[in-house]
Amino acid sequence: RFAEGLEEILVVEEKRALIENQLKEQLYNWREDVRPRVIGKFDEARNWILPSNGELTPGPIARLVAKRIARFHTSEKIEARVRFLDITEQSLAAINPPLKRTPYFCSGCPHNTSTKVPEGSRALAGIGCHYMAQWMDRNTETYTQMGGEGASWQGQAPFTSTKHVFVNIGDGTYYHSGLLAIRAAVATGNNITYKILFNDAVAMTGGQPVGGGISVQRITHQLFGEGVGRVVVVSDEPEKYGRQSGLAAGVTIEHRDELDRIQRELREIEGVTAIIYDQTCAAEKRRRRKRGTFPDPARRVVINELVCEGCGDCSVASNCLSVVPKETEFGRKRSIDQSTCNKDFSCLNGFCPSFVTVEGGALRKPEPAARGAQPDLFEVLPEPALPSIDTPYGILITGVGGTGVVTIGALLGMAAHIEGKGCSVLDMIGMAQKGGAVLTHVRIAKTPEDIHAVRLATGGAKAVIGCDIVVTAGPDALTKVRTGDTAVFVNTHETITGDFTRDPDMAFPEGELERGILEMAGKEKTDFVEATRLATSLLGDSIATNMFMLGYAWQKGTVPIAAASIEQAIELNGVAVKANKAAFLWGRRAAHDLAAVQRAAGPAAAEPEAYARRYKDLVVRVQTAEARVVRDSDTLAQAVARYYFKLLAYKDEYEVARLHTDPAFLQSVRDRFTGDYKLNYHLAPPLTAERDPESGHMKKKAYGPWMLQAFRLLAKMKGMRGTAWDPFGRSAERRRERELITEYETAIDELIAGLTMANHAIAVEIAGVPEHIRGYGHVKDRHIADAKANEAALFARFRNPDMQASAAD
């Protein structure tokens, strides 16, 4: 009856055809003269029109519907809409943002350590957060459904020269059906090591308890009962397993720092072995600490940025997003984002003396710059005219998972409900709770019945509240922008992505991201705001940023809900009510008078820089030579100024001691911490440090507060540097550092003597080679080797005119 009288039925369904095939089957034997044409995934010519792969969005569906009904009906409105969709699609096809917000392990996540595999090994993934290891250069590939962990290896093992693999599996998956996969692996007799993460929560979907009373102890007994050959429990707190721990007989207990050695041992054992990696989920730690149900050690990590060399070894060791870049006049350094740090402390394993732990005391909540300000600091804020909602009004909110973006959408939904309006909120989060992209679609109308779709269509946003510039510059967000009509507000803060943990030189492409947004939205409709800096300075916490952005957008007249309703929704939410209302108000103030808010927040302070005569003489010589050869350019002189300084200011024991006793650093610690605390220094003194028996590298250990007095004494002895009485000067590392200075001077002399217009650009590259000489000890040795190889290749081009010409071409 439904099909009777129809010429064509178009079936739109996600993924593969289901209803389409059922319709075709039901209508198959109907008379040909009445049977309608049924299309969906393919048209009548077998061309793909609604593919099964990827996502079906309203734009392509609308164009298809317009095309199919065109033989019956069209209109100027339909044609205009199709043209708009075509133009938008062409514009978006050209958008290739230089940076993407990819989901990543949380700061302090156990997987940052647990998913590492030894050199020469590979791992398989499954369902769970560890799935993300596949895009982290950890030699982890492919995944299976729950209960299929390792099944692919059972098929591969007989046909490959690889003798062994690791398989990652979570405790929730293990309890669900993963134990059956282990049973199958034992039955096949393949060489495989299961790494079972016991993190005490179903972390990927919200931190629910696993249930069933599962424990590390029970898992060890089950594994041995299934026939697993050897079981090792690895923990960041191995001391909690005493003699009466309840573990199965034969289980060994190790610290997580020994994971690499343990994996190397297990991969040599035939059959099935298992590692139970016991460490609580970082996100759950954070939640439970807020509720007071989980121990919160009075211990924090800080980095002395002047000691830091920016080598990135701490990021390699920890894979942690709380180790963030900090740009200084001395180059890129590292800092710890205390607002996101979950106290995993694996960053301390980076081979660098810049790490200091603050033991005791508490993190001082930053004093808001605006605290104590008079109420009349700003004039009474004008009330903007609220936009019309005669047709449903679309707002897109973008941001980073885990920072409260979803909360903003929920507050708008509640505020609309308070006013009796219709509202829909759709959160596109995927794996966003792991630091990925979040896009919240909000539609507000006079009544709920006026809203027919919860997702914003192409060009359907009247306002974009961009809490993160990376997500806002992506195609998923820009698709919703209609040029000249959509108001776009963007937080310009440079929130790093997971790529930074593996690329210490990764530059944040703020300019390119801004250009992409401007091209789509238009300059007149776009506001870029330093929201994170302003919110942190004014309110003492970066978590206020998103609410600040909402206040900014509201004051600009782009949110069709009264401010009083939004504030009432904040009160009903019951979380940090005073702080959220203040953030909303400061955002409004910034939209009204940004200059006044910037003054209230205060400027960032700059640091001075000094120059030695030897340094100045070389720089002046380069300036003179460059001016003779290349007019209106000082790029070579600038490169020498930066990198000759870097080599001269090498950080030996005397310099590290001086920088750790620098009053400015000690004051910065006092500014950040309060209470009775002490400082511990994490060092590997070259004359006394133990060496790792496998790698031969020096091992770091903690030194207590007494080390500060030793540093002060050592700093006063810097006059011994380079003399016969220098106890450190004869080490290979110190000799190599002095050689680098003279080698650089010799290299610059050659550049000055042979400088031409043709080889000027290559000369600048050569002068910048020390940029990549970073770190301490074995880390620095590796960087020196790479830098010198690059320098040799560049000099070959500098000395060869033919190579210069080909490079120019």
Amount of helix: 25-40%
Oligomer: single chain
Strand line-up in the sheet with most strands: 4-3-5-6-9-7-8
Total E-strand runs? 21
**Main beta-sheet strand count, sense and barrel state:** 7 strands, parallel
Average pLDDT figure? 89
Report how far apart the termini are. 71 Å
State which percent range the strand residues make up.
5-15%
Coarse shape: globular
Please identify the structural class as seen in this structure.
alpha/beta
- Calculate Rg over CA atoms: 31 Å
Number of separate helices: 28
Low-pLDDT regions:
604-608
Structure description:
The protein has 809 residues and is of the alpha/beta class. It has a seven-stranded parallel beta sheet, with helices on both faces. Strands 15-16-14-17-18-19 form a six-stranded mixed beta sheet, sandwiched between helices. Strands 10-13-20-21 form a four-stranded antiparallel beta sheet. A hairpin with a 2-residue loop joins strand 11 (323-328) and strand 12 (331-336). The protein starts with 7 loop residues before the first strand and ends with a helix.
